[in-house]
Design goal:
With about 260 residues, this protein is mostly helical. It has two domains: about 1-130, no CATH class; about 135-255, no CATH class. Helices cover about 70% and strands about 0% of the residues.
């Protein structure tokens, strides 16, 4: 189990990134920028944790590469996607429910909450970083699972971006590529890569961090992912109900006829 004293700098790094982003959100009047730094919370925590460890284990380098690739890709993708757009309607609803004084309340309702969630979910990474055990076949399985999830998420995001940039697709439903087999390939890929991080941790004694991928999967399915996105999308986008009827929501499978 990670040493609490070693974890303190990681927690402070993640809270600092959240606090700086909150200050920017007040100036921009847009808390949606928190999505852009979600991956950076993990990257900052991982770097701080490695800096504090007396001696990093054999998994330090591959894990740092994996976290960096995931965090930077996700951050760049979300920043480019949201650039010049108004505040996401999810955050507009939160803002409306928490007036007056939302600019202060958002520090803990949005940014503080994200930082705490990131600390909890990052536990498999922290547990693996300090392990002194040699690399083994379970590590290879975890890396393979992470790689499949990363590619699933990245390719899904790329396909959707191309689809949206084509003006002839305005108002249409994306049902090609990976989106033919699951309505949310990016969310499925995100869940898969976190199970990959967990498998690596479990293989070196961090089996107790199973709450991390379970929590991430639950959030993606029931809270901030599938459930929230599809709450009213059928009313806003014609053809989506038919897409729902023939396409699995999360786990990829052949579409129904």
């Amino acid at each position: 189990m990670p040493d609490l004293m070693v974890m303190m700098p990681a927690a402070l790094a993640m809270l600092s990134v959240a606090a700086v982003t909150w200050a920017l959100s007040v100036a921009k009047k847009d808390v949606g920028i928190v999505d852009s730094v979600w991956g950076l919370l993990f990257l900052s925590g991982t770097l701080a944790y490695l800096w504090t460890l007396p001696q990093a284990g054999s998994r330090a380098t591959p894990l740092l590469v994996m976290v960096t690739l995931w965090a930077l890709r996700l951050s760049i993708h979300i920043t480019v996607r949201n650039w010049g757009e108004p505040e996401d309607r999810r955050y507009q609803a939160i803002r409306a429910r928490n007036q007056p004084g939302f600019h202060l309340k958002s520090l803990y309702l949005v940014f503080g909450l994200q930082a705490v969630l990131a600390m909890v979910i990052a536990m498999p990474i922290f547990a693996s970083l300090e392990s002194g055990e040699s690399l083994n076949a379970i590590d290879m399985l975890g890396v393979a699972l992470w790689t499949a999830g990363f590619l699933f998420e990245a390719v899904g995001d790329w396909q959707l971006t191309r689809f949206r940039r084509d003006s002839s697709n305005r108002g249409k439903v994306m049902d090609m590529g990976l989106w033919r087999y699951t309505r949310h390939p990016n969310y499925f890929g995100e869940a898969m890569l976190w199970w990959g991080f967990y498998v690596i941790a479990a293989g070196c004694g961090g089996w107790w961090t199973v709450f991390s991928p379970l929590l991430m999967t639950f959030l993606l399915l029931r809270v901030s992912g599938v459930a929230l996105l599809e709450k009213d999308i059928g009313e806003r986008r014609p053809g989506y109900r038919e897409y729902v009827a023939r396409t699995p929501a999360f786990f990829p499978w052949m579409p129904s006829r």
